Amino acid sequence: MDSQNFFKHLTVIELAGVLAGPFVGRFFCEHGARVQKIENPLTGGDVTRGWKTREEDAAGLSAYYISVNQDKEVVWLNLKNAADEAQFLDLLKSCDILLTNFKDEEGISEKVNLRNLSETNPHLIIGQVDGYPPGQQKPAYDMVLQAECGYLSLCGIEEGKFARMPVAFIDVLAGHQLKTGILMALMQKMQHGKGCTVRVNLWETAMCSLINQSAATLKTGVAGKPLGTLHPGIAPYGEYFECADGRYILLAVGSDAQFKSLCKVLGCDEVAEEDEFLNNALRVKHRHSLSARISEKFRNHSSTEWLSRLNSQAVPAGAIRNLSEILDSPEVKPLLHSVEMLGQPERAIVTSCIHFQ
């Protein structure tokens, strides 16, 4: 199955900015759909066009914008202009999916009459990203949601010194939720021939994505706390150790059998038999003394040598690499996509990695 042309029969109009909505548009684009991104010339288009970080002096668009807007057709329309509104409504007549994240108070929904589009195009599927559930009208940004929904309280190395997730994961997760809902709507459309509106919001997405963290707090009544890279219920899981070459290896040992294999690789089988480390619960309780016992072993060889030995015994471990290292690695090359935008050659990683066999 050719996944790159899977949606070649679909036309998607993207009336959305920043990340969650455009992330969904990028998914359909990567799989063959024609995606037309509506941007307002009066405001300079999607606000992320100017969100430059490490590339402040680089020409062209921001890396943020490029990451989810490659290969889309940009259509400049001011929907408060009658002629542009008419052009937009004409585009919608032959559209399969409309993506939007504009709030009602911005006047866009009423201006283009999104709620009654079924009369213009009864087959249209509308994918709407909201910030909060109905009745809560306030600006919604990933960073604020990380704070409100407990993520910041879990990140960092100690209480009071918080750290954010470096990717706007709540936006990304909301995009995944919306993408799933639209795919479900497409299946329903195949059966009944009619479109519908699919809505997700960032707040519910954030709460539903806490998974085991929320379950643990509901079960025990005790809120999680920041532990850096460590896992609250598994050890050695998240511990990292410096090797002879100055690089670090992180462990993710999740079972007693894996722990015994780790000790065998390190040449300290006796550690696995000590009373303090006989099972996972004990290793969590004594994780700091365990780290002290095995850290000296890692300094005897390079990270490459240790990874080879650990992998041969199926011990979960990985080298800590920075983005430049991983993006330059051979295994990432199939995920890189190149395109020309505004006359500049640009690259980004694809947002969809689905494979059919």
Structure description:
With 357 residues, the chain is an alpha/beta fold. The protein folds into two domains: 223 residues, 3-Layer(aba) Sandwich (Rossmann fold); 84 residues, 2-Layer Sandwich (formyl-coa transferase, domain 3), CATH 3.30.1540.10. It is built from 16 helices and eleven strands. Strands 3-2-1-4-5-6 form a six-stranded parallel β-sheet. Strands 7-8-9 form a three-stranded antiparallel β-sheet. A two-stranded antiparallel sheet has the order 10-11. Strand 1, helix 1 and strand 2 form a beta-alpha-beta unit. Helix 1 crosses helix 8 and helix 8 crosses helix 9. The chain is elongated and about 80 Å long. About 2% of the residues have low confidence.
User: Please, what is the CATH homologous superfamily of the largest domain?
Assistant: Crotonobetainyl-coa:carnitine coa-transferase, domain 1
**Major sheet characteristics:** 6 strands, parallel
Do you know the CATH topology of the largest domain? Answer: Rossmann fold
- H/I helix tally: 16
Instruction: Give the CATH class of the largest domain.
Output: Alpha Beta
The strands making up the biggest β-sheet line up spatially as 3-2-1-4-5-6
The N- and C-terminal alpha carbons lie at a distance of 7 Å
What is the percent of helical residues?
25-40%
Features:
357 residues; alpha/beta; Rossmann fold; six-stranded parallel β-sheet; 16 helices; 11 strands; 16% strand
